Amino acid sequence: MNYILSALVLASFCLSAAVAATACEEHRERELTSDSKVKLIPICTENGEYDSLQFFEGSPFCMCLRPDGTHFTYPSLILNACSFIAHRDRVVIQHLIGNYSPHCEVYGTYTR
């Protein structure tokens, strides 16, 4: 009897952990029910993290976010890619002296 009870408790714990929403998913649900005219409805990756390029609904603005949801660019009208800017952000955050730091155009691509 104790074995069955333990198995049920373990199964319910695993099930609740599997359906727990990530911060991005919770943020998305909040924004979907918001009455705001201009809002950022986050796009989440398969892992539940924030996608790097995010768009403001009802606005031409977009911005780049880190996987934890913090932004590393301000809202922009001309930004169209975040992968290059994200690369530079990861390098700068490491604070390595003498390390190569890529340079990016304002719209999100590498400078030549």
Automatic annotation (TrEMBL):
According to UniProt, the name of this protein is: Thyroglobulin type-1 domain-containing protein
Q: Which residues form the Thyroglobulin type-1 domain?
A: 21-104
List UniProt keywords, sorted A-Z: Disulfide bond, Signal
Which InterPro entries does this chain map to? Thyroglobulin_1 (IPR000716), Thyroglobulin_1_sf (IPR036857)
**Signal peptide range:** 1-20
Asked if the keyword Disulfide bond belongs to this entry, the reply reads yes
The scientific name of the source species is Parasteatoda tepidariorum (Common house spider)
Lineage of the native species?
A: Eukaryota, Metazoa, Ecdysozoa, Arthropoda, Chelicerata
Record-linked Gene3D superfamilies: Thyroglobulin type-1
Q: Which PROSITE patterns match?
A: THYROGLOBULIN_1_2
Origin superkingdom? Eukaryota
